[in-house]
Structure formats: C-alpha cells, structure tokens
Amino acid sequence: VGFELDDMVCPSKPLLNSTEKMLLESFVYNYSIALLQYNPSNESMTSPFQIMEEFRPFLNQKLYDCPAPWMNNPVVGASLSVIEIAAKCNWLRLQMPLDESNTQLAMRLLNSAKYYV
C-alpha cells in the first residue's frame, strides 16, 4: 500500500460535478472520523491507504479556475492532506505493534505532517 499526498490538480476534464465532489469530500472527512471508533474485531472497513488512492483523481480534479489548488475542495479546503494523514495514522494505530513496513509508513506520515507545523 503506497503513501502519496498529492496536492497537484488533475489536468483532465472533470470527472465529477461540484455537488458530487462536495459529497465525496464529506465522505472522506466522515470516514476519517469513523476510524476513531472503528473496532476491527467486529467490523470490516477499507484501509484509508486504499480509499485515498482510489479517490485521489476525483479529489484532485479542478472544478474552478482558482488561485490556489486547495480552493477546488468545497468542503475540506486546504485540510484535505491533513485529513488524509490523520486517517492513515488512525489506521496504523490499529496495527500496533507495527512491523517494519508499517513503521516506515508511519515515519513517512510523520515527515509529511511536519510540513504543516
């Protein structure tokens, strides 16, 4: 499972209209919050690494001609990358103790988070 925060806007024609994109952003935000209450013993949930990889083309599409790429995110704005980091950290918390691969992922998340501090 790869880790990639990508603030680049997809140059292709829009895949979603503004309402669909707003609903997708709302889902991503609420999904990241739901991970706080997730109990792996009695539920199944898709990894945020997979969710973000699958939805990235839709989340990064440019709807409007805005001066900053994050302005094309009507619900979450500039916080989309931070929501992604938080969701992935929550997921890794459920994998404790971390194996070598997840430890490396956690370090990459930490380095990405330092950008916002």
Low-confidence stretches: none
- String of helices and strands: HHHH
Determine the mean pLDDT: 84
Q: What is the count of DSSP helices, taking H or I runs of 4+ residues?
A: 4
Strand segment count? 0
Shape: globular
Helix content: 40-55%
Q: What is the total number of structural domains?
A: 1
How many strands, which pairing sense, and closed or not: the largest β-sheet?
none
Please give the radius of gyration in angstroms: 15 Å
Percent in strands: under 5%
- Strand pairing plus helix content: what structural class? mainly alpha
Subunit organisation of the chains? single chain
Terminal-residue CA separation: 26 Å
Q: Could you list some keywords that capture this structure?
A:
mainly alpha; 50% helix; 0% strand
Task: Give the topology.
Layout (H helix, E strand, L loop, with lengths): L17 H17 L13 H12 L20 H14 L6 H15 L3
Helix pairs in contact: 1-2, 1-3, 3-4
Describe the structure.
The protein has helices at residues 18-34, 48-59, 80-93, 100-114. The chain is mostly helical. Helix 1 packs antiparallel against helix 2 and helix 1 runs parallel beside helix 3. The longest helix has 17 residues, at 18-34. The two termini are 26 Å apart.
